[in-house]
């Protein structure tokens, strides 16, 4: 599929930016029209009464369409979400309570099974507007996906203002921290983008980078990475993805088991499925030169969960690159894993200065039944 195909029939923006003359009556306009109709008949207003419905529609027509504002997309989507899901799935702001590895170990329930998932490879800022934005960008905020398992936020990127990520024109990729569990593609998956940048002209204040809501709903198997560009008011975002059908969830853990990881050695951990040579996913990139290794030797990955198609393979690569007095050191190794339905697989990457054990925990996908049982 050509880049951008997602933005057509497969990608649906709830903001309606492509409709007509880029104007619409918002949720606030509808509420205002409803109030006007009620003011005319405050004591006997009933929306299921024909005359009152006509009064409501007349008031709605009188409400002038307003210019579409990107800032309104999230509030309008939140209003719709509250109407559809709040009674069953909690608050709009809730993070998914279902973690990874739900069906890694026995007993495995009979309803657990592989299904179609959506693999996210990367998200990057490809263009910025000329109205005050300049590289580098100090970005914070969130990008979250909501699938039909629980309709709650499954964060792909989530940073507070005091932990923002610096994007440059040469390195515009968001460091993804999720998904925290595989994205199940049975019903449409909604994506919520709320990104801001620190203002360069007014310290302590933020500027809008992107506020968008869109959805993906095509469930099929892809053997290649697909991408689309999401046009926002102040930037363009590129999403790279692939639907995998059928597939299972794989959770990666990396641990130093022999030797040590020197503070002057940068580290990069990536993975990809064997079927997609260009589908590399970054699990960790220690750009500041220090690898985040805890007291047990576990390397704290930014992202841990990916999807693997049935009868597929997962390759996990670890790279070390020296800095300072270790400059010139480059070592890399790859561990190969064959897909399993449950349980764990182990492999070792030998970098010379240390050995790293890679563990993959396999699991069937989370379902609505899991959500109901965990409530």
Using brief descriptors, characterize the structure shown.
375 residues; mainly beta; 2 domains; 7-stranded antiparallel β-sheet; 6-stranded antiparallel β-sheet; disordered N terminus
Written overview of the protein:
The chain is mainly beta and 375 residues long. The protein has two domains: 26-67, no CATH class; 115-374. The protein has four helices and 19 strands. It has helices spanning 27-40, 50-62, 73-89, 368-374, and strands at residues 11-13, 23-24, 66-67, 115-128, 137-146, 154-159, 165-167, 189-198, 206-216, 226-231, 235-259, 265-273, 281-285, 298-299, 305-309, 313-322, 330-338, 343-350, 354-363. The strands form four sheets. Strands 4, 10, 11, 14, 15, 18 and 19 form a seven-stranded antiparallel sheet that branches. Strands 1, 5, 6, 7, 8 and 9 form a six-stranded antiparallel sheet that branches. A hairpin with a 7-residue loop joins strand 12 (265-273) and strand 13 (281-285). The chain starts with 10 loop residues before the first strand and ends with a helix. The relative contact order is 0.16. Mean pLDDT is 86; it is low at 1-26 and 37-49. Residues 117-360 form the DUF6598 domain. Residues 27-44 have a biased composition (Basic residues).
């Amino acid at each position: 599929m050509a880049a951008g195909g997602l933005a057509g029939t497969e990608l649906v923006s709830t903001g309606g930016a492509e409709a007509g003359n880029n104007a619409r009556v918002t949720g606030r306009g509808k509420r205002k029209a409803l109030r006007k109709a009620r003011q005319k008949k405050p004591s006997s207003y009933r929306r299921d009464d024909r005359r009152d419905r006509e009064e409501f529609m007349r008031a709605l027509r009188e409400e002038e369409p307003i210019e579409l504002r990107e800032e309104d997309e999230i509030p309008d989507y939140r209003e719709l979400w509250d109407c559809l899901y709040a009674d069953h799935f909690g608050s709009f702001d809730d993070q998914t309570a279902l973690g990874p590895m739900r069906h890694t170990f026995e007993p495995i329930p009979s309803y657990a099974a592989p299904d179609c998932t959506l693999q996210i490879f990367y998200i990057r800022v490809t263009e910025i507007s000329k109205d005050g934005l300049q590289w580098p960008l100090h970005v914070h905020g969130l990008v979250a996906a909501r699938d039909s398992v629980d309709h709650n936020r499954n964060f792909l990127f989530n940073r507070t203002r005091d932990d923002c990520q610096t994007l440059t024109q040469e390195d515009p990729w968001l460091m993804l921290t999720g998904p925290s569990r595989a994205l199940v593609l049975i019903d449409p998956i909604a994506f919520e983008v709320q990104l801001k940048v620190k203002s360069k002209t007014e310290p302590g204040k933020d500027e809008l980078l992107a506020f968008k809501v869109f959805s993906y709903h095509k469930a099929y198997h892809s053997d290649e990475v697909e991408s689309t560009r999401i046009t926002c008011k102040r930037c363009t975002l590129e999403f790279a993805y692939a639907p995998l059908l059928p597939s299972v969830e794989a959770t990666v853990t990396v641990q130093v088991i022999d030797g040590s990881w020197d503070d002057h050695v940068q580290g990069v951990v990536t993975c990809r499925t064997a079927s997609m040579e260009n589908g590399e996913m970054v699990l960790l990139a220690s750009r500041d030169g220090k690898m985040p290794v805890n007291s047990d030797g576990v390397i704290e990955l930014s992202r841990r969960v990916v999807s693997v198609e049935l009868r597929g393979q997962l390759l996990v690569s670890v790279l070390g690159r020296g800095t300072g007095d270790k400059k010139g050191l480059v070592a890399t190794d790859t561990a190969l894993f064959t897909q399993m339905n449950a349980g764990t697989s182990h492999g070792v990457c030998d970098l010379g200065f240390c050995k790293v054990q890679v563990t993959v925990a396999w699991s069937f996908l989370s379902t609505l039944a899991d959500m109901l049982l965990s409530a």
